[in-house]
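[stage:ingest] chain + small molecule (beta-D-glucopyranose)
[stage:ingest] validated
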Amino acid sequence: MKKKIISTALSITMAASLVGCAVSPDAEENAATGEGELQVGIVLPTRDEPRWIQDEASFTSILGDAGFTSEVLFSQGSSATELTNVESLIEKGIDVLVICAQDATAAAQAVEVAHAAGVQVICYDRLITDTDAVDYYVTFNSFDVGVQQGQYLIDAYAGQTGVPLYLYSGATTDNNAFIFFAGAWSVLSDAVASGQFTVANCDAIAPYIGQTLDVTADHEALADILGTITTNWDFNTAKSLAEANLVANDASLKGDVAILAPNDGTARAIADAFNADADVSSFVVTGQDCETASLGYICSGLQSMTIWKNTAELASTTCDMVNAILSGNAPATSTTYNNGVIEVPSNETAVTVITIDNISEPVDAGYVSASDIEGYPG
Ligand code: BGC
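[stage:predict] done
[stage:export] tokens:
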């Protein structure tokens, strides 16, 4: 295994131009008669992760091409900043707020302020919970993200028994972290029960081996489990937690190991920790977001897979919803998500597993640039 650290330099070559938003004549008229007021306000969690910069680029391009006036603001990890951002966008006259919550429950206050001002609210990627002040939800199929991560580990160690399995999750303030983990556990649970894997770092999961966990019904149990394995979506936390797990375990829980890492940033941090442990001979580690740095890790064998969530598609679905709302119509939705208070009308976008075998897919689609991926073949 190479001990090579790949630069995390970010470059976005968005496929936004390939994915558009159908604008009705009504909305075009609305756009034209907007009298200079901002129509759409977008609030994203942080600039510090490539994922959200990709979303920003998608929104700017797709909403701009559709003729809507919009502004993107970042909360930088603070629910207080998130609220201030929402208030400032309301002051600028927005009709629609698109918000990816910093904290699922804390954001309820911000969307209640928006609703009180007559602004329609679209939850973007992360569901805001415990409030009725949300109108729509646009998301990737997050449960499937988890299923694909778990299944990848199962397939990678097919036919083996007693493989140490290290579990890590996203932030417990993010509803998605619950969905990703429940999705992964929906397939890993039986693989642990059958003896293929031995969980190496999470005692709290023991009562649920052989059972699935439901995001709504088992929320408290999930919160307890995630509380012991959370990376808080933070690279340093992820690395320290992985190092602590490795210090706590002897060689019997090392060797060839499987690692459920929730996203690309944490996957690279966790991979670095496992790569530095002399008793770990090899590891298979999951990810998500299709970040260029992680595609580089995949090229060098330090990360096994990622999940491509095409942000241009999600922004395009959001744009279609904005278009319907500004035209006075109800946006088309395909499913609902329960946020603890209401069933939120939602649209789900499919995801794609990327490994070394199909790494050219996001490159060929123009989503990332080959020249930015360290070690890209060819
Ligand atoms: C998103 C992931 C992202 C994570 C950390 C989640 O809600 O769905 O794509 O990696 O947050 O920002």
